[in-house]
Amino acid sequence: MGRRAWQLAAAAAAILAVLGAAAVRPAGAAPQVPCYFIFGDSLVDNGNNNLMVSMARANYPPYGIDFAGGPSGRFSNGLTTVDVLAKLLGFDDYIPPFAGASSQQLLTGVNFASAAAGIREETGQQLGGRISFSGQVRNYQSAVQELVSILGDEGSAAAHLSRCIFTVGMGSNDYLNNYFMPAFYSTGSRYTPEQYADALAADYARLLQAMYVYGARKVALMGVGQVGCSPNELAQRSPSGVACVEEIDSAVRIFNRRL
């Protein structure tokens, strides 16, 4: 087994250990971590796009048909993966969207994710309003400045943030709503899949470094899934309508290997 495979195995074991501990968490016990911050796209957005002029919104039926309170901005009938993770980590409630969070809620974490967002600034622009990864990082930096005010000084804020969990999942839209959308973007003709993955990874690293400078330490980075198997791509690009689009999935695998 190679070095990277061992690293992935170790990471998986650590996550399973956390979730296993969470499963036996006594009622009323404190969360395993003091705060949880979320960055991403429609897979984890829980309402940051609700007030935007955007096609990338989910605050109307049939979204939320199984969610208490109805449509919330989640691109799901019910919970998202980060909602489940928040519960497993021991939080009493779901992590709120940054757009509607109070100063006090910043102490336990907020969700910065935005549907249609990408690593590249222009990604998803044909859908209207969205908060790119760089915009999410800027919002996080603003939140950290607020935490400094709440906790009294930078050292206290840094100590607090060093104990938080951060999950970051970007890149899907950089392929589906950029590279493989030639009607709106020229990236597919200007970059080979390898060049595009390199450019994305460089931008990603730069923004993750900015998060590190502002106190992020325990960061879980999510790879891009098999987006060539998404319903829209099956309908638009798959000759059979059943087989996943290998051209997309192979390009995504190149990017995932850069992480």
From TrEMBL:
Residues 1-29 form the signal peptide. One of its GO terms (molecular function) is hydrolase activity, acting on ester bonds. This is GDSL esterase/lipase. One of its GO terms (cellular component) is extracellular region. InterPro entries: GDSL, GDSL_esterase/lipase, SGNH_hydro_sf. Coiled coil: none annotated. One of its GO terms (biological process) is lipid catabolic process. Belongs to the 'GDSL' lipolytic enzyme family. Keywords: Hydrolase, Lipid degradation, Lipid metabolism, Secreted, Signal. It is found in: Secreted. Its main location: secreted. It comes from Panicum virgatum (Blackwell switchgrass). It comes from the Eukaryota.
